[in-house]
Design goal:
The protein is α+β, with helices and mostly antiparallel strands. The protein has one domain. Helix content is 24%, strand content 20%. It has 5 helices and 6 strands. The protein has a 6-stranded antiparallel sheet with strand order 4-3-2-1-5-6, sandwiched between helices. Strand 5 and strand 6 form a beta hairpin. The two termini are 29 Å apart. The N terminus is likely disordered.
Length: 259
């Protein structure tokens, strides 16, 4: 068996038995104030949210800087009459779209923000609410979307699940109490998977599929990790799969298509 094939088998076996390939202890990065990615420290902007982090008006739920790296492969997004122009140098700077101007995937930020606002979810990147929280936003092209929020409250942990009907937009919410042991089990998935050291966003071209976004809201700061249709080979995508499927299984929601 070729070495590359052997490594792939090992990855799949590890994933199948509900474990992530672990880095050595010296490589594991824990969340401390000076190792957060750019844009991941709390902004502490006033007048946007209530004390629980719920928006008082529509806002972006994510730092745009965390979603840099958009690459449209030569596709120019500009206002008419320059929308069909193929040469970027021929378009006035004021008419060039956001994607080309600052290389930020604002479309993903805005669509996820709209979903979270509809669910009346808290914004996690502005200030620390005093409640350690982990959130998984899972959107799919052809099936209902889900938001899973895991947070610790007093001596117990709550897993709050919101299903958004793809056809009607109707919300279905439920809460489940889980043990603190399970709460720390989820935290370990993130730290051993090097969640705090992985680049927040990596753009990938896709027409349909899914989006997996995991956020961490802890006293020292905020972190997001977002990928499109994560697979089973790369470390960052494996981590998202592991964390997302852990929350899906603990919530006991009835889903048949995990992609």
């Amino acid at each position: 068996m070729k070495i590359s094939n052997y490594l792939t088998v090992l990855l799949l076996r590890s994933f199948g038995c509900s474990s992530v390939i672990q880095l050595s202890e010296r490589q594991v990065v824990h969340p401390i104030e000076n190792n957060l990615y750019l844009g991941s420290k709390y902004k502490n902007q006033q007048g946007l949210l209530n004390e629980q982090g719920i928006p008082l008006k529509p806002v972006a739920y994510f730092n745009y800087d965390d979603f840099r790296g958009f690459s449209p492969y030569g596709r120019i997004i500009a206002e008419a009459p320059y929308d069909t122009e193929k040469g970027l140098s021929k378009i006035p700077a004021s008419r060039v779209g956001l994607y080309h101007e600052i290389k930020v995937d604002s479309s993903t930020v805005n669509s996820l923000s709209e979903l979270l606002l509809k669910a009346n979810s808290p914004v996690l990147n502005n200030f620390y609410t005093g409640k350690e929280t982990y959130r998984f936003v899972w959107t799919r092209a052809f099936h209902d979307d889900y938001i899973f929020e895991l947070y610790k409250q007093d001596n117990q942990a709550i897993l709050h699940t919101t299903r958004i009907d793809k056809q009607t937009g109707a919300l279905e919410k439920s809460d489940k109490v889980i043990s603190l042991k399970q709460f720390y089990e989820f935290k370990k998935i993130l730290t051993t998977g090097n969640f705090w050291a992985i680049k927040p966003y990596r753009w990938a071209l896709q027409v349909d599929g899914s989006s997996w976004t995991v956020e961490a809201h802890v006293p020292v700061g905020y972190k997001v990790l977002s990928r499109s249709s994560p697979g089973l080979v790369h470390e960052d995508e494996l981590l998202l799969r592991k964390a997302g499927q852990w929350l899906i299984s603990r919530s006991e929601v009835d889903v048949t298509e995990v992609y």
